[in-house]
Design goal:
Helices cover 62% and strands 0% of the residues. With 138 residues, the chain is mainly α. It has one domain. Helix 1 runs parallel beside helix 3 and helix 3 runs antiparallel to helix 4.
């Protein structure tokens, strides 16, 4: 991660371009090859710059926080497990880069969509009451 941080410091705004780490690292590390940084936020910062990294990581963290604040952690176990699985995937992306595994990628997007759906469902309507299936007109 140290070399990745050096790359980010050298080009913080726009990064080095997509998949640049796999080209730059062997030059730095005596011909050793690593295909990626093993940390999604760092990978985003190296490839696309800090603004992109902050936007993407910030969006995911905001979704987790909003879902927690809207009561997802007080719901039945299945809904709490949805939030916990999302958090586990976030932590996993901070220690490795399973982005290239299509199964985990699909799971990640599904979990984020579920968090968005929960947040949207728990938003108060104009009367100040949360939307519920009983209140929805056919």
């Amino acid at each position: 991660w140290q070399y990745a941080l050096q790359l980010v410091a050298a080009r913080p705004w726009f990064g080095w371009g997509a998949a640049a780490f796999s080209v730059l690292y062997p030059i730095h590390a005596a011909k050793r090859w690593h295909g990626h940084v093993h940390n999604l936020p760092l990978e985003l910062a190296v490839s696309h710059g800090l603004p992109v990294m902050v936007l993407i990581v910030g969006t995911v963290l905001v979704l987790l926080m909003l879902a927690a604040r809207r009561g997802m952690l007080q719901k039945p176990p299945l809904e709490r497990a949805w939030w916990a699985a999302s958090l586990v995937l976030v932590v996993m992306h901070a220690t490795d880069l399973p982005l290239f595994d299509s199964r985990l990628n699909i799971l990640g997007w599904t979990l984020l969509a579920g968090l968005c759906a929960f947040i949207r469902e728990s938003e108060p309507d104009r009367d100040g009451l949360a939307a519920s299936p009983e209140r929805v007109d056919p």
